[in-house]
Amino acid sequence: MSSIPKIVILGAGYGGILTAQRLQKALNYNEADVTLVNRHEYHYFTTHLHMPAAGTDSIEHTRVSISKLIDEFKIDLVKSSVQEIRTQQKKVILEDGTLSYDYLVIALGGVPETFGIPGLDKYALTIRSINSVRLIREHIEYQFAKYKNENNAQEHINFVVGGAGFSGIEFVAELADRIPGLCKEFDVDPSLVNIYNIEAAPTALPGFAPELVEHAMNVLTKKGVTFKMGVAIKECLPGGVILATGEEIKASTIVWTGGIRGNRLIEAAGFEAMRGRVKVDEYLHAPGHENIFIIGDGSLMINPEGRPYPPTAQIAMQQGECCAHNLVASIRNQQPKKFSFSNKGTVASLGKGQGIAVVGDKTYKGWTAAQLKKVVDMRYLFIIGGIPLVLKKGRFL
C-alpha cells in the first residue's frame, strides 16, 4: 500500500455522498486521497422522483450539484461511468480511464428487477433517474395529446403501474393528483381516465400495519386508482399488460416499480450476490475483502428477525456514515465499529396533504403524516447541505 492510501467511492447516491462528506470532515490533510466517481455532476433524491415523474413537482427540486456538497480540495470528483471492477488488480475501469485504489466503496445503487417477466425491460418505464423521470412525465403528457388526435383511443388514457411498494403507491398518488389538471389542459373527461395499480403480493406497502395500508388504499381509491392485488403481471406488451388471470389491460403507459436489484457490475466483479446484493459483514466489508465496502442497494444485511433490511435511503445514509468511520479507522489502525441500523421511522406520501407514517410506536395518517414526510425530506437536505440547501430545495407548502 502506498504512503498515502487511495480511497475510491463509486456512486454519489445516499450512501456514497454521506461517505464522501464524512471522510472530508474526519481525514487530516494528506492522510488519504479520496476520489468520488459518479455518472452525473449532480446528486439526486431517489425518494423524491415520483413527483416530477407524475409532473407534480420540478425536476430541479430533486437534484443538487455535487460540487456544492463536497470540498473539491479534499475530494476529487470524476464524472464517468464505471465499466468494470477488477478486485485482483485493485482497479476500476471507467469509460474514459482507469483508477487504482487501496480502499474501494461500492455505492452504485440499484437497477430495476423485472423478475424475468417478458417484455418489462423493453416496454415498461421505470422511476430510477432524472432522465427516466423526465421521459415518464413527457410520455404521459404526450398520451393525452394523442388521445384527442387518434379518435379517442382509450389505451392512451389508461395507466398501469406495476408494484404497490413505496415507489408504486407514491407515484400513483401523484399521478392521480395530476390527472385533473391534464384533463382540463387537453379537454378530456376525467371519468374516462384509468389508473391501475397491480401487485403480485396480497397487500400493498409491506412493513406498514394493516390499518394504515387500508387507509392508504381508501385514499387512493377515492382519487381514482383501481387496485388489483394478489395478481401478477404475466407479460408486458407494446400496448398493455397480460395478468396471470389472463386478463389483458390495454394501456400505452406502463410504469414498473415492482422491485430493484443491485448493480450488475457487482456480480460481474465476482462477488457472490443474490439479485445483485452482496451479504456484507457487520463492518460493511465485502466477503473476503477487508479493503472493499459495499453499501446501499448493493448490500445485503439481515435484521434481528432474520430477514433482509429493505434497501432504503435511510439505511444507505447510515451505512455511509459507518463506512466512512471504518475507512478512517483502518487507515489509522484503529478498531472499526459494527453497523447498527437505527430506524428513524417510515413515511409514505399519498399525494397532496395525505400520507401515512410510523415513528417509534406511534402511527400517523392524513395531513400530519404529510407534514412528517416534508420534515424527513428537509432533515436530509440539512444533513448534506445545511440550512442553505433546505431553503433552496425544501418543500414548505
From TrEMBL:
GO BP annotation list: aerobic electron transport chain
Q: Which InterPro entries match?
A: FAD/NAD-bd_sf, FAD/NAD-binding_dom, NADH-Q_oxidoreductase
Which residue range or ranges hold the FAD/NAD(P)-binding domain? Answer: 6-320
Q: Which domain of life is it from?
A: Bacteria
What are the UniProt keywords, alphabetically?
A: FAD, Flavoprotein, Oxidoreductase
User: Family, per the entry?
Assistant: Belongs to the NADH dehydrogenase family.
Record's protein name: NADH dehydrogenase
Species this chain originates from: Paenibacillus wynnii
